[in-house]
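Sorry to interrupt, but I need a hand with the structure work. Could you write out one complete protein record for me, on any chain you like? Just paste the record in under my message, thanks.

. . .
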Amino acid sequence: MNVPLLDSYYLQTGYNIDTELSNDEALVVVRPDNKVEIGFRGTNPKKLDDLITDARIAGGIEEGSQQFKDADQMVKDIRAKYGELPEHSSGHSLGGAKSMTIGQKYNIETTNFNPFIGRNLYKTSAETTTPAIQTIVRTTEDPVSLGLAFKPGLGQKDSWQVKVLN
């Protein structure tokens, strides 16, 4: 993975990219306090695998996809390498779906931008929602996260904090 501009930025801030665990789907970063964060990228419309994974999210079968299996394995690899889970996860669109899914599964705080919230995340009951804060930032014109504006009972999920930007 070639990330010279990011390497330069992170070196100036004290953050380090874990090039062993990072890949084209996600960036693993070690903060100056040695806590690990992971960030997942959104859909690349030129990448067929991304479009297939998006369709699986819409159908509620995303966790069987290779991309979701890889995201889960990345979390396990982080725990194996650093002795603890990532402290935070983030993502955009497809990446937001991955981020929230691992956040729910492993009780990791997340910040997600216009996440693709499929059936599986929607149907998570308030009682089984992780206590870790799942911050969702959506713009009003984003069609993928539009359902967040209409989902009944979403406000009952105390750990889901939806912020809407015009």
The chain has a mean pLDDT of 86. The first strand starts at residue 16 and ends at 17. The helical segments are 4-13, 48-59, 66-82, 94-106, 119-122. Strands lie at 16-17, 26-30, 36-40, 88-92, 109-113, 134-139, 160-165.
